[in-house]
Amino acid sequence: MTIAAASPVQSRLGPPAIAAGPTSHAARWNSLKTKASASAVVDIRTHISNIDRVLQKPAAPSVFPSSNTSTAYEDAAGDASKISAARTTGVRWFDSLKISKLFGSAAATTEENYSPRSLAHLHRLLSDSPRPSPKSSIASRWRTIHGADGWSGLLDPLDENLRRELVRYGDLVQAAYHAFYANPNSSSSSTPPTVALPDRSYRVTRSLFATSSVAVPHWLAAASAAATAPTWMTQQSSFIGFVAVCDNEREIARMGRRDIVVALRGTATAPEWVDNFRSSLHPISAGEKVSTGFWSLYKTPGGSTPDAPASLSSAVVDEVRRLVEKYRGEELSITITGHSLGGALALLAADELVEEIADAPPIAVVTFGGPRVGNRGFAERVEGKGVKVLRVVNAHDFVTRVPGVLPGSGGGDDDGWWGSHLLEGYAHVGTELRVDNRASPYLRPDADPAFCHDLEAYLHLVDGFNGSGLPFRANAKRSLARLMSQVRPNMKAIYVSRSRSGRFDPVERARGVHQGCLASPSG
């Protein structure tokens, strides 16, 4: 496993030493530091005034950075109140199971002062046009950005083109969350939920479902029948993501290839949570083992009826193979992306696609807050097949440090967590891009664990990350309103107070559409 970001000691001392040779990275590092120093000279009163003015604008809420996609999402997703109701009911039901207490509670907000530089960043985020940054052509180096060299030299400092690609893949995972919460009861391949993509260059070609092999406990089924628990919390098959392909010729030319994407959400239902706890190691070949729960969700079919969804494994392989054959002869890439549980399943999918698709295009996996999936043998197996894996990790996200979503003591042939995991050991795969929620000037340094694992928080941090020891990016584009809509206690007190005084309520403005976007307390 390669750790790309600098160590904490190195971060305190300054940028890492750069070998002699091409000077582009060193020059960029110095340029970033110079710009950061220049932005520190700010008139605080001017920025307070600007913030007030921006917050009082009666602007319509925007789901995605591009204003022309928010309307498309609202039209496609249907009644936004269903998203909010499903989300709220699910969270309340989780509270009754005390699962939320595992994440801790947000501490009381305290007043904190902003530096002039932080106020400058805040003003830019609030006042910038909602349009995303212009995309430059990556056609000549797409393989490098796609991980051909293990992202060597691109992570610290973070290459701006790679940053855009990472945020885009994260937004595709957010679209999977949106679609699930818009229609959480969809459990059949014949009634897939509508998926509205934030990037219109891509087109969804197949919905994906995951099925748990764990029988729903009697008391849980009774609660669902009595309407004290939502039915979608107990169903064994649920929409978990989609396969999409880029079919915009202009974007294909910019990227240098046609990209096939598999996007997978994190945990959302009770059966999925149960599988997360099944953390015994399941052998898939000699010396190569993976989590029993992850393997079950990946391989279990939805049933024997004609409209029952196929297993996630067969659905992904069949659809990606079909697309590869359809576009055979073109320059192609396969990107599999997921958050939390979705990141774990993404690794299993990548491992299988290499074997099942003849002459497969380059395969890259991009995960956000993903747990360990298997033992060292499995990690070596994936890396040995040439699959490139980039794990985006928040330094304070505990999910990335456990073998499953939470460590548990299995049953049956499970030797227990201490016996199985310490003896055989779980291991991460690939390269790590480490971000830190304490580096953001807009977030509380003591943000709670659920927030540290939240996908929107991840995308906020990636969008603002420059490099180890460097300040948060001054021209970050991602909206803070979306982040604040569910995690207000984790935001800096001064931002909360300014938004309230400016009659700006991100919860009301983001109600419905944003509710399915954030992954907490799912994982």
Automatic annotation (TrEMBL):
InterPro entries: AB_hydrolase_fold (IPR029058), Fungal_lipase-type (IPR002921). It is found in: Plastid, Chloroplast. One of its GO terms (cellular component) is chloroplast. Signal peptide: none annotated. GO terms for molecular function: phospholipase A1 activity. Residues 261-404 form the Fungal lipase-type domain. Its EC number is 3.1.1.32. One of its GO terms (biological process) is lipid catabolic process. Its main location: plastid. Keywords: Chloroplast, Hydrolase, Lipid degradation, Lipid metabolism, Plastid, Transit peptide. Pfam families: Lipase_3 (PF01764). It comes from the Eukaryota. Belongs to the AB hydrolase superfamily. Lipase family. This is Phospholipase A1-Ibeta2, chloroplastic. It comes from Apostasia shenzhenica.
